[in-house]
Amino acid sequence: MKVGVVTFPGSLDDVDAARAAGIAGHEAVALWHADADLKGVDAVVLPGGFSYGDYLRCGAISRFAPVMSEVIRAAERGMPLLGICNGFQILCESHLLPGALIRNDHRRFVCRDQRIRIENNRTPFTTAYPQGAEITVVLKNGEGSYVADEATLDRLEGEGRVLARYLDVNPNGSLRDIAGVVSERGNVVGLMPHPEHAVEDLCGPGTDGLGFFTSLAAASFV
Amino acid sequence: MARYVVDGMPKREILDPQGKAVLGALPRLGFGGVLDVRQGKRFELEIEGEPTEERLAQVRSMAETLLSNPVIEDYEVHSDHHTVSELAHEEGRV
Q: How many Cα atoms within 13 Å fall on the side-chain side of residue A154?
């Protein structure tokens, strides 16, 4: 598949995301924030980083970048869309996913190898995992605390839309230990930890993250 | 030219870690009796022309789309020295 990776001003993990897509057998396509052009890709990754310096709110300005109008339109048609970390924040600001991400409750930046449980393996990015798989990937964020009102949280739980949950410790104060969520239609996925940093043995905590990218190959969506 | 102010505050039910940090620092500086601190944002916008209801509606729209996130923040819109309702009252529209 052709997997587009968007670079915003201040993106950090676009290169790693593209590399992960390549390792999983995809053709990574660089997309630019200022071009309203998806270059015919089959899926899009919004990578981590500090787009627009996290000014105003994380993801708030990126959400209105020219490329995002196309990304939102494609997502509404069912295209697989994965937002990692800052990408997750952008998806929440875009209202493609419910809730918001606020500053960690302990107010410190956190960087650790984090165990998470895959709670929904029916998305375009998680079919490679058994339901309930426990994997270890990198977590690194300052504003990763997932919040939403109780009714929204109940709905997410009831509809199986909690993508992943933190295990061992809750690293940032996320409500109900939520590490990632899925859109109502199931094609838009937001995740705070970084699977793209766990795809090779050379660095990172292992290769548990690769499944997010190999899942795409196994699936036919849209 | 008229100045408009948008004040944004984290919703009551949302944890405000920055306010908590300030709350923790005040007693260390000898300021006692502070029960809670909430930290928000203030935007000052200078817009051409006299203040009008249309302009206020426009600023409110800015607040809803970009300046605040309704999931976690509440906002209030004021013109320079008047609140929205005061201005509307002066213009005889309330």
A: 3
